[in-house]
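EI: anyone free to look at a 482-residue chain?
SC: sure, send it
EI:
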Amino acid sequence: MNTINLNRYDQVSHTWDEMYIADNHLREQYHQIIRYLENESANDLNKKEELAKRLFMSQGITFTVYDSGEGIEKIFPFDIIPRIITCAEWAFIEKGIKQRLKALNLFLKDVYHNQFIIRDKVIPASLIYSCPHFLREMHQLNVPYDIYIHIAGIDLIRDFDGTFYVLEDNLRTPSGVSYMLENREITKRLFPDLLPQCKVRSVTEYPAILYKNLLSLSPRAVSNPTIVLLSPGMYNSAYYEHTTLARLMGVELVEGRDLIVKDQKVYMKTTTGLQQVDVIYRRVDDDFIDPLVFNPKSVLGVAGLMSAYRKGNVAIINATGNGVADDKAVYSYVPDMIKYYLNETPLLKNVPTYSLGNPDEKAYVFENMHKMVIKKTNESGGYGMLMGHAATEQEIENYKKEILKDPRNFIAQPTISLSTAPCYLDGMLQPRRVDLRPYALVGPDGISIVPGGLTRVALKEGSLVVNSSQGGGSKDTWVLAS
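SC: here you go
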């Protein structure tokens, strides 16, 4: 029987490997799955890989890459080998994310009300007011239970010594949770016995927790509030996720044209007439949510929605204006927020970050561009980045010119050697770089984080970019119960 040869697994130097300690000693959490793989033939594993591809194809699990203005729909690449996180590691991650979200939520309430953090000179006023996602329309707008962040996807990476760092906070309309759920469903088909044997904790409660939180946010005291998921429509890159979450929660999937505002209340058009809407889980960006307040050309949102929101007649999840808290230039102040609002030491570290709007930091970054990753403060999906170690001198010079046009719009971070995890590629296990996006749900009863998340993988050898739009894939994330 032709089985996997683990001796051919080439660890990347100066990099934390999720499966191996130095000198190819297996970490304890991987013992059971490796024993299983050693008893499987390469042919069996190839069949499992092919089955996973067919399942993704048949269920339409796709994402859209936008290149040169064209949307190209692709099947989301899936690696069959799970990424395994110990019980102790997860306890630390969970505690750190809860601490971070408490501070970020207090920051959003403060920055849209009393602005104590600006008055006390913890964060410069110029940084806040220059943020394109700071919405003056949210000033003094009270949100239910003072919760701004109902759903968060916090991106974590590991450096060469195993330390977890927060790479970025996704607090607007975080995506990818449907892939976490589908990855687990497919793993159940591929390795039905392994999950209970390894005591892997479940992630399938996510839709139920989200639905319970949405119900609790209804401004009307009715037994059965009307909840809708507002999507930009089928041409959006995350439309598969919108349909999946609406189906799993049993709520209506709507587009802007399905809703109307009358007397500062939101209604859904139905075959039996108008039905008042209490809670909107929106996947439409702030700029497009209400053409009377934001982009007047938007056909994705609902005219008058912000007036109904300000009146307290509808709850919007996540709150509008959250982008000021996940702006990449504001990100560097989150540890200060934790100390300021909670009087605690941050548990999860930030990646060292240089704001190019600061002349001294910009000068340092310009001298060390080849060691840096440069990002636009309000881009996502891996777009608009410069990987200094892989860029040519000409690319660096061109990027400097872009920075000089608007330095506030850029930050720089040292290149982090992302941890590697085993992937099944070309009939053998090979290390590839990974990150982790756990999903947190915030409701009146507190913060819930399902034990797992979306592990994204840089499938190209040597690549540090895990985004699906840049050629990345994903794998199931196992959190062990003990």
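EI: The first strand starts at residue 20 and ends at 21.
SC: 👍
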